[in-house]
Amino acid sequence: MSSLSSSPQLTPSILAEQHGLSSEEYQKILSLLGREPNREEIGVFSVMWSEHCSYKNSRLELKKFPTTGSKVLVKAGEENAGVIDIGDGWAVAFKIESHNHPSAVEPFQGAATGVGGIIRDIFTMGARPVFLLNSLRFGPISGDSLRARDNRQLFSGVVAGIGHYGNSIGVPTIGGEVYFDPSYNGNPLVNAFCLGVLKHEQIARGAAKGIGNPIFYVGAETGRDGLAGAAFASRELTEESKADRPAVQVGDPFREKLLLEACLELLASGCVAGIQDMGAAGLTCSTCETASRGGTGVEIDLDLVPKRSADLTSYELLLSESQERMLVIVHQGEEATVQRIFEKWELPYGLIGRVTDDGKMKVKRGKDLVVDIPARTLADEAPLYQREAATWKAPAPLDLTTVAECDPIIVLHQLLAHPSIASKQWIWRQYDHTVQTGTVVPPGSDAAVFYVREANKFLAATSDCNAIYCSLDPHEGAKIAVAEAARNLACSGAVPIGATDNLNFGNPHKPESFYELRAAVEGISEGCRAFDIPVTGGNVSLYNESQLASIDPTPTVALVGLIEKREQITTQFFKEPGDVIFLLGELGSELGGSHYLLASHGRKEGLPPRVDFEYEKAIHKQLLSLIRAGLVRSAHDCSEGGLAVALAEACFGDSNKAEVKLFGACIDLGKKGIRDDVALFNESQSRIIFSTKAQQVEQVEQELQASGLPFTRLGSVTKETILSIQLDEKEYSWSTEILHQSWFKAIPHLMQA
Amino acid sequence: MKVRITIMPQAAVLDPAGVATAHALEHLGLHGVSSLRIGKLIELDIEGATEEELHQACRDLLSNPVMEDYCLEVIS
Amino acid sequence: MRCAVLQFPGSNGDIDALEALRSFENVTAELVWHQEKSLDSFEFILLPGGFSYGDYLRCGAIARFSPIMQAVQKAAASGTLILGICNGFQILCEAGLLPGTLIRNRNLLFRCEERLVRVETSDSPFTKKISSGSVLHLPIAHGEGCYFAKEETLQELHDKDQVLLRYATSKGEITKDANPNGSCENIAGICNQKRNVFGLMPHPERACDELLGSTDGRMIFESILDHVHHGAGTSL
Q1: Does the CB of C62 have a partner CB in chain B at under 8 Å?
Q2: A8-16 long-range contacts, Cβ below 8 Å, gap at least 24?
Q3: CA angle A543, A64, A381 (to 5 degrees)
């Protein structure tokens, strides 16, 4: 074995420390190995035991998620992504994953490789990726400050990078969400979601099975890309980290498209015993994880790995994060099949080793043994930490008397033009969302809907997280993320079948941050239990801090749902003048954490709204029952900006269309006895506005009365493009054409600056 | 002043376009390509700037120092 | 009608095209890998959208050297109908089967949205079932779809009635606002002088099902089918 003796000052323990391993962790390594690790082994331990790979700071919390259910075919944590049954022998594999730190350093490539990584996670499962979503957060993009300019550059770079990768590989990006807040200055969030479709019998496993089976490396050659990026991702961003950043990982969607087709062809041939993508910590992670899952060992020779340059050291080969690579274990005798398929797709491949029976990860460089570590210790025996959690201090409830009542006429314009609420068409028109000819509801409605033609299934998907709520009350905020995502699905006519989450937090060593993580996990768990949605996997991104501050806790929840029939697909847009508009739920009055407070008063405070899951569920159930009875023409949830924003958005037609329809609405809220700004802009939960044909109003009212749920007949859709709202004795009215301009042009205007 | 700025991907950074183009040359029968990298060439006519200012512009805008190197030549 | 959908490394609209074609009666369609050398058994050849060879170097520049392209040249010369959609259009231009070229969108951004195109003439196998002046709703999805040609080429396209589609308003007006990418004279699709090779940036194969919001793409495929089955004789 190679030793470290060449450099007398550099003892293994110092090297371990430089790799971010604690002295406690180093002691554990000594006792696991029964000797001192060499440099390569220290590198291997440091990436495998980093937060990114081992979830050592969060795993104990993640155990709280509900992960089982009758439809769960592959559970969270078992494989690269969870798999859920959608009926008729078909299933979906889906997952969300972050690429926050790489995107902060190089937004275009960081975001692009994030998309590439999540797509690989999905086709590793044997599924054909059919759509993408992404959840993004940036610092504010308005104004002339240097910071705003930086944020605009990050924003446009990330959007272009996502488009570059998704468009080229031909997986449509059909939805997601984007928010802007100072807490993300210098630390943007880029969370990418991918969903793939497969038959039950096609589920592939990332296990090294079958002693003696050959192990192939397939895909792009290894270079010095993103060396030790996984370890890098688990540290705070500092000015130096920009400087000593090794080679940025560059994504090659063309290579990945070939890799995707080649792997699916290889899987279909039946010769694959196990398959695993090389993501963070590349070769290291994929070899020890497959061995650990298979209960076997692996032995590989680095000399046989396809390389971009011959002078790569063993250390570099083990830790490189070059993209578009996979590890494939095939049944003995099937070597020629791999050769045939990978030559057809013009991809490099190499037979690099064999599955062994000694439970070890053994890496050789020619004749030299470079790494010799029990595989399980790397993959499954990382230390787990229960960090200290601060006690939560509830924020002071909002004192309404301190909130000056702003003119609702102006406020609605302000809210619609706020980048977090404004139209995101500038973003999604840079994404190919029509390729694969399945996008039935494109981005811009409550949830995207995708038709899986070969399975004849309609899937709905959404991702949500209001981080303002989470910053004020992480537990309630996380609950609302689930409730809102479920509500978005209900508004599209879908019933949720599975969840994946991306937990974006600050440094877990800080008790406040760790509390936020714990509270959010508990909130999401409560929500998923209430709706009976299994969490099928996800990702944790910690250390999201820049020199300025820690980000607002952002536990993003993505839900996937099923729509029974084509006729039940519902969008948020009003359909025809004369249709009658209802509010399902209360008028509400909670202003804490609202966008109105933020956009019009510059205040991020108060208690965020509360959510009662039993009530929320009853609302969804009722809406779905109306949708199934054919009584709903449009449905839209009330979220940021409250009822007024929801009504305005419903008046705006689908902006993907060549001719955008605009409607008006004539609304009477009656006598409410609360302030007008509260009535119009509060963000109380569990509220949906929907429209129905005039002739069906009676039937709708009967059903709603029978349900015992609160509802209000608000008014009707008008041809005239005026939104008028009667409140007590006052009437407010807006031209929806002008509102639409405020909303539609806000982001393009800022980005031209 | 006439300035020529050559911008190339850094040696360790993957250049997907270069790789694909090198393969294409092989297919065309031009064998023995051991490396092909694609960069950018910028020609600039400018008055009154110092060379240091130009270097600054190369670092700030014209190249992406995270993944590209540049070479600045004053031609006339 | 026996259809070939060519598959280059990096094609991503191949399956969409295949499925759209198969939604018509009396159509058989199959994928043909770019390494193949013959297309003799096909009556219609479709070059699908995507990013062949990653669109590296120039869109379509590497794909034009694929072995199958010699068969495409031969088929074009013999009068077989050939349709290039998006990246397929770019490849046909690079291969010299269509004049002009497609460059980066004027605002430098990829654009994906529904657009309106005016059919300029019914006098082509690809538009024979559509009356001239009709406005179609077709999705676009491209970053390099700005059609560019020299003045004399544009003049020739006019003289020979080779412009089949232009970006237009709902009333059929050719305006700057209706042009999503800065194409010369709002050109969205052109054919060759023999009128058997047609390239367009919009995606008719993505507008063949009510579920996706438009079925206007069907009219183009119906024209092709009619031409193949009934020959050049019948028209509107």
Answers
A1: yes
A2: A12/A36, A12/A37, A12/A38, A12/A42, A15/A39, A15/A42, A16/A42, A16/A45, A16/A46
A3: 65
Q: Under CATH, domain A66-375 is a member of which superfamily?
A: PurM-like C-terminal domain (3.90.650.10)
Interface with chain C: mutation pick from B15, B19, B21, highest number of C CBs within 10 Å: B21
State whether the Cα torsion C224-C226-C232-C236 is positive or negative: negative
Q: Do A250 and B13 lie within an 8 Å CB cutoff?
A: yes
DSSP, res A532:
T
Q: Are B1 and B74 in contact (CB under 8 A)?
A: yes
The dihedrals phi and psi of A176, each to the nearest 5 degrees, come to 140, -165
pLDDT in tens, A679-707: 999 999 999 999 999 999 999 999 999 99
Whole-number Å distance between alpha carbons of B68 and B59: 10
Which of C86, C93, C191, C208 is catalytic? The answer is C86
CA distance B17 to chain C (A): 5
Q: How far B74 CA lies from chain A's nearest CA (Å)?
A: 28
Please check whether residue B23 touches A, CB under 8 A. Answer: yes
User: In angstroms, what separates the C-alpha of B76 from chain A's closest C-alpha?
Assistant: 34
pLDDT in tens, A20-46: 899 999 999 999 999 999 989 999 999
Give the residue from A382, A619, A257 showing the smallest Cα distance to C15: A257
Q: Are A219 and A259 contacting, i.e. CB atoms less than 8 angstroms apart?
A: yes
* Annotated catalytic residue within C144, C203, C208, C227: C203
Number of other residues whose CB lies within 10 A of the CB of residue B65: 13
CB contact under 8 A, A247 and B16: no
Query: What ranges do the domains of chain A cover?
Result: 66-375, 570-753
Cα dist. A705→A635, A690, A700 in Å?
19, 16, 9
The domains found in chain C, sorted by start residue, are 2-230 (3.40.50.880)
Distance from CA of C151 to the nearest CA of B (A): 27
For the segment A233-243, the average pLDDT, to the nearest whole number, is 47
**Ordered mean pLDDT values, 10 residues apiece, chain C (236 residues):** 96 97 96 96 97 90 92 97 97 96 92 97 97 97 95 96 98 96 97 98 97 96 94 54
Residues A181-220 pLDDT 10s: 999 998 999 999 999 999 999 999 999 999 999 999 999 9
Interface chains of chain B (3 or more CB pairs under 8 Å): A, C
The whole-number pLDDT of residue B28 equals 85
pLDDT band at residue A246 under the 50/70/90 scheme: low
Question: What's the complex ipTM?
Answer: 0.95
CB contact under 8 A, B17 and C62: no
pLDDT for the residue A63? 93
Annotated catalytic, C86? yes
Report the chain C residue with the minimal C-alpha distance to residue B24.
Answer: C62
Report how far residue A324's alpha carbon sits from residue A256's, in angstroms, rounded to the nearest whole number.
Answer: 5
CB C105 within 8 A of CB C145: yes
The pLDDT of residue A215: 97
Active site (annotated) includes residue A99: yes
What structural domains and CATH numbers belong to chain B?
2-74 (3.30.1280.10)
Q: Do B20 and C57 touch (CB under 8 A)?
A: yes
Neighboring chains of A (3 or more beta-carbon pairs < 8 A): B, C
Please tell me which of the candidates A168, A252, A431 has its beta carbon nearest to residue C112: A431
CATH class of A570-753: alpha beta
Contacts of A242 in chain B (CB under 8 A): 66
The CA–CA distances, whole Å, from A272 to A249, A327, A330, A711, B47 equal 28, 11, 4, 56, 64
Among chain B residues, the shortest Cα distance to A245 is held by B66
Per the structure block, which two tokens stand in for C117? 């195109």
pLDDT bracket for residue A753 (50, 70, 90): low
Q: In what order do the strands lie in the sheet with A688-692?
A: A634-637, A688-692, A580-584, A711-718, A664-668, A722-727, A730-735
